[in-house]
Amino acid sequence: MQELEKILEEIDQEKKNAALSIRHTTGYKAGQIRMAERIEEIIRKRMNDGWIPVEREAPPTGKRLQAKIKHHEWIADYDNDWVPEEERTRHPEYTEICEIVCVDGVWRYMCKEDGYELSEAYINPQKDISVPIDEIIAWRPLSESYRPEAAVAQRSEWQDRIMHTFLGRAHI
Fold this sequence. Notes:
By secondary structure, the chain is α+β, with helices and mostly antiparallel strands. The chain contains 4 helices and 8 strands; from the N terminus they run ααββββββββαα.
């Protein structure tokens, strides 16, 4: 991680150098600055393990994604005067990773806590301690699915020989 931070510092210095010399060949220098900014963005995504905060970029609709869902603290019967305060159930805040998808403009997900029941999540919701609120705080694309044919294609020659020796040609 420290190495990536050093790289980002170098890129920032290069951007400053390009900005100082922008009087000469303006289009070229502006392109250099844009490219440096794009490289910074790519590195920052990797530094956060690919998680993109919703403050920086909203998740794209129409795609299945992985999201960090923050389940805000809430209190059951919060607004009911007839339930004594000591009998109200407090639900603590916690965060979990779920798969999400936007359906008809609403973010939907299934999480372990609710027994994989379909739930809704929001981006920057209004806070209300009397109801459960699930907030998307970051997202990233789903990782690539495992493809056994790719793993077989990457086997080395010696692995093929071992497989052939122990399992016979039919299992390769």
